[in-house]
RNA sequence: CGGGGAUUGGCGCAAUUGGUAGCGCGUCCCGCUCGGGGCGGGAAGGCUACGAGUUCGAAUCUCGUAUCCCCGACCA
């Protein structure tokens, strides 16, 4: 047994391991500009799979895609006080254009609320023109101090949905719909379990009334905010003085919401689903679901045809590169996380079968050609379920219900993970907990029950258990 | 923005008290191989990130600049 490793160890140094996977699986590479990355074709294919799935959900909801410019006039951002305060430290600003200094500086969008609502205002004057349901797939720029491929890059790709409704309940319906769509994307496509909830006042989006989130737990016990869905209330409408006539002819401010899911999702996917042999892709997002490796030097063309006939509807690839040995290919595709590999040689052809290797359990089995289709379909489903259940179990095993602050501190200084604890909802208490333990409130889970409790930190009365964790 | 590390053929690294740059992988050619990163032979490829300085002599020492990575505070 060859024990040579081609990828660094996950348990030994998760940061280096993560970068190693990203580079060796050819998902992305460092760009010449600090904090930026090149998403390579294999990584981009994962993003496309996410786009296709989520875009369908978005369209089913009646939201339409559009595109707004990446340049935003500087004064747009200044209109909403909390918004500008939240984003100003991380803005990239264009000061020159066409060889001349610009009269008004342009911001590279960190998010598009302001430019989109400016246009919405122009397009509407009556309740009859509501709701506005628009989404865009685009890039945004946030000048983060510390970057990390996929998880936190200076420029990243996402979709941002921005809707405006006549009433708050309608807007809230959209907010919760988006949260649910994201949860579906994570659960069904990326095989990632997580907790949906609402952010605390200090953790919410700059300018939002309420921010909803989906938090997923990483292998090192840190929490990743996997998406956002914001109830913006009427804050931006008021900032832009945007009113429409309601049914009684009176002017009213529309209710807005915004929601986004970014390429960070791929970072979460890599972190959770991979091991010391490389990436492990859930079949539903895998650009290649089945890799076929014919043993080099053997005449297998007609037998290969028999096999591919059984794979209709699947994303498969035959690796017929003559310059690589079979063993090399096995390792290569394992690093790239392809869920199923079929090894095919004369041995298999004679028996009318294939050797099937599944990436998640690393087990090999022999499958007869007669039931190859059904067997692969079954195994792909099984891998998808297996990965999700594994992450669900990991998250649950590492979610601690805690009532003493000593225990809280002990967990955060050792294994980390999610902590479910009562909190009085006083921001100073929250800040103190963060200073002591690095843990912040991740969210108040959607399904949290009202209970009689006392704050884990200050002992004052508290009504709900919040989810705490260290942010990635 | 603070702390640490790094920068040497395409990639990953080495070079002892300062002495004139070497190895692995990859690439190209030839032959044998091919069921878990095969083997032999041959070849190409570097004013050692940039700029000063010290020295008979600098990849190595000093100062400066730039970029990247990691760890913290901020964030999708």
What report would you give on this structure?
This protein is α+β, with helices and mostly antiparallel strands and 472 residues long. The protein has 3 domains: 14-273, BirA Bifunctional Protein, domain 2 (2-Layer Sandwich); 290-379, Rossmann fold (3-Layer(aba) Sandwich), CATH 3.40.50.800; 399-471, C-terminal domain of ProRS (Translation Initiation Factor IF3), CATH 3.30.110.30. The chain has 14 helices and 25 strands. It has helices at 14-24, 41-60, 74-78, 81-87, 113-123, 168-189, 235-239, 264-273, 301-308, 326-335, 346-351, 372-397, 405-413, 427-437, and strands at residues 28-30, 37-39, 64-65, 71-73, 92-97, 100-108, 132-141, 155-165, 195-198, 210-217, 222-233, 244-245, 251-252, 255-262, 290-294, 316-318, 340-344, 353-358, 363-368, 399-401, 418-422, 439-445, 453-454, 461-462, 465-471. The strands form 6 sheets. A 5-stranded mixed barrel has the order 9-10-11-25-22. Strands 16-15-17-18-19 form a 5-stranded mixed sheet, with helices on both faces. α2 (41-60) packs antiparallel against α6 (168-189). The protein binds one RNA strand of 76 nucleotides through α1, β11, β14 and α10.
The low-confidence runs, each spanning 5 or more residues with pLDDT under 50, are none
Q: What is the architecture of the largest domain at the second tier of CATH?
A: 2-Layer Sandwich
* Rg from alpha-carbon coordinates: 25 Å
Q: What is the first-to-last residue Cα distance?
A: 37 Å
